Fold:
Amino acid sequence: MKLSLVLAKVNSLRLHPEWVDGPPLGGPGGPIFSKAVYEYALSGLLRDISPQLKNKSFGEKLKGVAKRMAEGSAKGLVAGWEPGDDICPPWPWPWPGPRPSWELIAPDPVPWLENLRGAMRDVVLAQAVREIASLTFDKEFSAEIKGIGEAIVRDAQAKIFDDYCGTPVKPRVPKPKKAAKARK
Structure:
C-alpha cells in the first residue's frame, strides 16, 4: 500500500464516530458507525502498516495487536445487530454512498513520500501508528501501540544517524575547461 494512502486513511479516521450522524456544529449527517466498526477499521489499518516496516519484529508485534483489536471489535460487531443497534435511521435505498473526495481523485500531492526508504519510511509509519494509538478507545491497546511506535522511532533513530554521519560528503569538483583550439 502506498505510504500516502496510509496517511490519508489515518487522516480520514480522525473523524469522531459520533460526529458522522451530524457534526457538533450541525449540518448534514450520515449513518452512525459504532465504536466496534471504528476499532475494526483501526485494526485493519495497523495490519496494513505492519508489513511495510523494515524491522520485521516490530511488524509482527503490530500485527499481533491489530489481530487482538479485530477480535475484540468483532464481538462488538455481533452485539451491534441486536435490537436497538446503532444503525438508526436505516440506510436509504439505493445507498447514495460517500461523495468522492478530491484528495483521492487528484494527483498525489506528496510524491516524495513514495521515495522514502528504510529508516525514514519507518519514522513516517511510526507517526501514523502514534496517531492510531490516539484514535483508539481502548487504553491498553493505545498504550501498547504507542510503545511499539516509540520503539520503531528509537530503532530508526540510530540508523538514520549512522546513515547521515557515515555517508562521506564530497565537495563538487568543477570540470576542467577544454583548451581552446585555434581555427584554421
